[in-house]
Automatic annotation (TrEMBL):
GO terms for biological process: DNA-templated transcription initiation. This is RNA polymerase sigma-70 factor. It comes from Pedobacter hiemivivus. PANTHER family: RNA POLYMERASE ECF-TYPE SIGMA FACTO, RNA POLYMERASE SIGMA-70 FACTOR ECF SUBFAMILY. Keywords: Sigma factor, Transcription, Transcription regulation. Residues 126-177 form the RNA polymerase sigma factor 70 region 4 type domain. CDD domains: Sigma70_r4. SUPFAM superfamilies: Sigma2 domain of RNA polymerase sigma factors (SSF88946), Sigma3 and sigma4 domains of RNA polymerase sigma factors (SSF88659). Belongs to the sigma-70 factor family. ECF subfamily. The lineage of its organism: Bacteria, Pseudomonadati, Bacteroidota, Sphingobacteriia, Sphingobacteriales. Transmembrane segments: none annotated.
Amino acid sequence: MKELYALSDRQLLEYCRNGNDKAFDVIFQRYFKPLYSLSLKYVRNTEVAEELAMDLMMWVWEKRTTDFCPEGTLKAYLFRAIRNSVISFFRKKTLATEPIELYHEETMQDSRYADHDQISAEIETCLQRKLNELSPQRRKVYEMSREEEMTYPQIAHKLNLSANTVKSHISFSLNHLRKSLHEHLDVTTLLILLSWLIK
């Protein structure tokens, strides 16, 4: 099994499609803990975080022999998926704490809460618009930190900046996004988005 650890995610998925279950074990070991940790950061509950991460990995397991081929990298796909799972969790939690009389059929069909994909799309649209307002360098630093998951020293080395400059860019960008998005998002979506921004 040692040779499997050297394979790329795409190669492991191909092995899974060919019936090699050990390849899935490698994918599980590679991503379960990071997905659990990310989920825990948002939901602040170990049992819920473990359940969300496990459900996602079980979904991948069920798809292992199909033509499952995520766009981009598997890592990026899984991290988007766990964030969608967190959004769905918060949405269900919010609905469960409201008076039942508020949820007539018309309300439940409200487009804002039709499914977590729509909420995610709203967040992505607002976030992208506000990112475009940043200077090119600040946006680059932000994307390298949040999307590429690079550390401050790694970013500083790659862009030939000081670590303090990188930290300053990130702080400015987060402050800009929080203040700007507060004006455009409803409370539930805003809380979810802020949990994304705080890392």
